[in-house]
Structures are given as C-alpha cells and as structure tokens.
Design brief:
235 residues; alpha/beta; Rossmann fold; seven-stranded mixed sheet; three-stranded mixed sheet; 9 helices; 12 strands; 34% helix; 25% strand; globular
Length: 235
C-alpha cells in the first residue's frame, strides 16, 4: 500500500510541476530550491554555474534544476565512469574529466570508492575512510586544471554559482580562487566535515575565509552553506 501511495503522490507532484505550481528539487538537502528562490527574487534567469565535483549529474546535484530551466555551465568530474554519465545527461554543458589543481601539478592520484560520494584527491581523506573500515577500490591518475583557468577559458564573466564538493579539498580550492577577478555571485560549499572520531563538525575556518572575501551566509542546510556576495541585493 505504501508503494502505491508513493506512486500516486509522484503523479500528483508531476501535475503541479507541469502547471508550474511546484518545482522539482534534485540537491542533497534542497539547496537548489533555496538558490532558485534567491535568483528568482533577484529577477535573474538562465543561471550560469561551475559545478566542481559534479558526481551524478542529476540526483544529489546542486545545479541540475538550473540546467533544466535553461542555464548552462561547466561540470568538473574526475571519475571517468561518472564523467560518461555527466556528459550524456548534461550535453548542453561543458563537461571536463579533470580535477582542480592547487599548484603547477598537472595530474594527481584520485581515490575511487564504491560509494562515489567519497571519491577524493586527498590522501588524508582516503586514509581516514580506510581506517574507518571503508577502503577505496582503486587509485587513478587524473589530469588537473586550475579553477581560474577554467573560468577564463569557459566563461565571459564569473559564473553566477560555483558549487564545490570534493571531499577534503574544498578549502584548498577556495584559497586558489582569484576573488578579485573570478568571484561568483553565489558559492555553495560542503561545510560539514568528519574528523578522526567520525563526529560531524562545521568547517569554521572555511566559513570565516569566505566571509572575509566579501560574502555573507544566505542559508545553511547543515551539510552545505550558501554564501552570497555582500552586494548581491544592491540595485
């Protein structure tokens, strides 16, 4: 009975989405719904985005809803298997099978887990997972691109959204971003992290860093924090 009730409720939901009385959400904790509300109230349409650590291009994804509504951007996914899915489903986006480089290094080891949400370039993060009883399946050598080069090569202006979820290196990528030249209107960053005790905690240093670079916290879903530029609402 519960199964059939879920099916019926999905059909009902689709009807309201079809008549534009409701909107789908694909993000992990509704981040895309919050972002839609933010940009809609600002009168912005056809949102551009840089999705770093795309993982699956639809479910659990912060930018797919904007893709459906006519937005375009760049999806960065280092896992070759996931990249094929991203490229197929997000055919109107530019899809890059690379990681984000933090220095002049041209490639790096990429640790691939059975749960793709744990995939990482961070040896420390991979070791932490392994010591917790979740070893990685394989290590791949993946090319790297600098975040500022990607923006310069694929955007006429900084993207409206930069979404970062890279398991352990989010802060390092942020520190490599040229905020004077390439600051987006909105940053969506996973700010919940796990220490050696596996206890979840917020990455306060990262949050403070972003705020010092001209942003304020617009929303927090516990897992991700959504930052807006201080002048976002200026007319």
């Amino acid at each position: 009975m519960n199964f059939f009730n879920r099916i019926i409720s999905k059909f009902i939901s689709c009807y309201y989405i079809f008549i534009a009385k409701a909107r789908p959400s694909f993000a992990q904790v509704g981040e895309d719904a919050i972002l839609y509300y933010l940009f809609h109230n600002a009168g912005m349409r056809n949102i551009s985005y840089l999705d770093i650590g795309t993982n699956h291009p639809v479910y659990g994804n912060n930018t797919y809803a904007f893709y459906l509504f006519g937005g375009k951007g760049v999806c960065v996914e280092p896992d070759p298997a996931l990249f094929k899915i991203v490229k197929k489903i997000r055919s109107n986006d530019t899809c890059l099978n690379v990681g984000i480089g933090l220095n002049e290094q041209s490639e790096a080891d990429f640790y691939v887990f059975s749960n793709s949400g744990w995939n990482t370039f961070s040896p420390e993060e991979a070791s932490l997972r392994k010591n917790s009883g979740m070893p990685y399946d394989k290590v791949l050598r993946i090319p790297l691109k600098n975040i500022n080069d990607i923006i310069s090569n694929h955007f006429n202006n900084p993207p409206d959204i930069i979404s970062i979820d890279v398991e352990g290196l989010d802060f390092e990528i942020l520190k490599s971003l040229d905020f004077n030249k390439n600051a987006p209107k909105v940053l969506v960053i996973e700010t919940l992290r796990f220490g050696e005790t596996t206890k979840a905690m917020k990455h306060e240093e990262l949050i403070e860093f972003v705020c010092k670079n001209g942003y304020f916290i617009y929303a927090d879903t516990h897992v991700n924090t959504i930052f807006c530029k201080n002048n976002f609402f200026d007319k």
